Amino acid sequence: MRAATGEPTAGWLLLCKGALAFYGVSGRSMSLWNETGETEGHMGGYRAGGCAEHEKASEVVQTGRRAFLQKSFGALLGLVAAAVAWPMVASLVSPSYRKAMVHFTKVPGFRSMPVGQPVRLSFPDVTVDAYMREHEIQDVWAIKHSTTEVTVFSPICTHLGCHHSWHPERHEFICPCHGSLFAITGQVIGGPALRPLDTLPYKIENGELWVQWERFLPGTPEKIPV
Fold first, then answer.
1. Boundary-marking domain end, from 49, 70, 93
2. What is the 3-state secondary structure (H, E, C) of 90-128?
3. Whether this model's pTM surpasses 0.85
4. Are residues 75 and 35 in the same domain?
5. Which whole number is the average pLDDT over 115-130?
């Protein structure tokens, strides 16, 4: 496949070009080879301007491609890891994220409630924390003032987190754990509790009560969501 003059034959040039094109060497690189390619004897003796130069160029191209793919794959893994970890991290460190995850839940029984009397209402609720979904039955104490107005108390005592209950014979909310006493308005009237009963956000739509379930830090004078 070589001429007597030592120059690459047309067949050899075609074969070399095809191999270089297969490995990704550009047309511009092959035209440079056409301009400068020479040989010195047998197949292993190409000068810097011949096929050996383009073999080196091919290696550079392949190395660059591998590096690009490795970096791209690493960046993709980083993005996936961040997407997976973000809800967990946000649920731990971001109160605003947790606030955005709360929602209103329909509470049955509001229509039939008597006016002015505390009534315990129960409803199913779904709690979302990162990727965890928990189905729970929650209780609230509601006092209906009219068809459009109600007070909704959390059932959790503000002292240390026990559940209080309404005692109509005493006209008080009483916590059985440490004896905290609360008036029908939620104000502390006895015991170690440091703040009134916690009220919950609500809305009334088409005569139905919807409540936003929340928990608050017990044992503090301030109402702090947790």
1. 93
2. HHHHCHHHHHHHCCEEEECCCCCCCECCCEEEEEEEEEE
3. no
4. yes
5. 86
